[in-house]
């Protein structure tokens, strides 16, 4: 255990967001006001110490996670029942299946427009998009050059944290899903389709 | 992901409607249920199954989302087309590949993302059970913190207290509404306090007799704080807020751009929160 391991532990304990390695080394280097820090801690050393901290925590009630490009201390998942009660959380804030689908399409294919998401899912996605934006898991990341300059959506750092991901490359099966050709959004239903629609809703007796 | 459902009772159907995230989801379910190969779907069977599901939903008076109907139309179209002998097809259709493949491709792609969504859901299930430290309450910008300084929240809170007071007085009918501008109130405040003088926040509103006058006075106060003519401070949290006028130098001309028309929120355009204790 290096001299500064205790400082590292204290910083991670007090932080309310994931701490990037560079931010940790900067804090360790600068030291407290009017005090001395440890100059030039290499990221390699830092990661070693973080791995040891993680091991020390393993049998205890806390865990160290690498999420959203940084490190964060959290409570052990098997203790969620107790902690949820303390925090007054009735039910973990999970996303609905439709929201998860919209989320998946955005995660792999960002930046992406609503029409493109809907072409994949085959349903209207405005409701799920609103929910995800409201939760801060996705954000409007720009506008497309396509006709009408539609709004494009992308993920936020909170997305990575919510799903416990280090970065976007950690998404399962990301190689393939980033490559697959997506269906092209169709034009609004033409007259021909509307006629067929009428036929289809007749009860099939 | 999709629970196995008993399809005879109405209850089960009601569950079913919310169990499918869309027509593609329903189709995948039917393909699996009928033990079909996705690359070799039997359109006739699939269409029949799909339409009967929609009918059941209708019988149960459940509203069927438009997307499910559009898919029904597509299926009926594809089925009827596949029944036509090849020589009877429209010339442009013959050249294209079977449009059935478009649907199959869409289903395959959708299935990939649906599986990915399932995996994300599993990750979420695990990580939603990990709690981290949450940010400590609302933290004012660093510039507003420290002993003796007043945050915007404190100031607004004090203002609301005065406003409530005035409302009570106004209801008693003892005071008449008079029109004031922010410019007039800026002048009033500067006349009220000599350079370097200090007064209680509340005292500045003593003479105000209406809600409108209190609001305009408060806006004038904020404007003067922004212009660094006045500063707000307090000895500690929850202690009385004091307003101090800058000793010297005083601006020759206080820009009174806000004096005309509707009062504006001072400092809003500047895009920065006023440093309430800069003096």
Could you characterize the architecture of this molecule?
The complex is a heterodimer of chains A (205) and B (279). Chain A has 205 residues and is α+β, with helices and mostly antiparallel strands. Chain A has a three-stranded antiparallel β-sheet. In chain A, strands 1-2 form a two-stranded antiparallel ribbon. Helices cover 47% and strands 12% of the residues of chain A. Chain A has two domains: 5-87, Arc Repressor Mutant, subunit A, CATH 1.10.10.10; 97-179, Orthogonal Bundle (Arc Repressor Mutant, subunit A), CATH 1.10.10. In chain B, a hairpin with an 8-residue loop joins strand 2 (230-233) and strand 3. With 279 residues, chain B is mainly alpha-helical. Chain B folds into two domains: 10-127, no CATH class; 142-259, no CATH class. In chain B, helix 2 (23-33) crosses helix 6 (100-127), helix 3 runs antiparallel to helix 4 and helix 7 (152-171) runs antiparallel to helix 9. Chain B has a three-stranded antiparallel β-sheet. Helices cover 49% and strands 4% of the residues of chain B. Chains A and B meet through strand 1, strand 2, helix 4, helix 5 and helix 10 of A and helix 3, helix 4 and helix 6 of B.
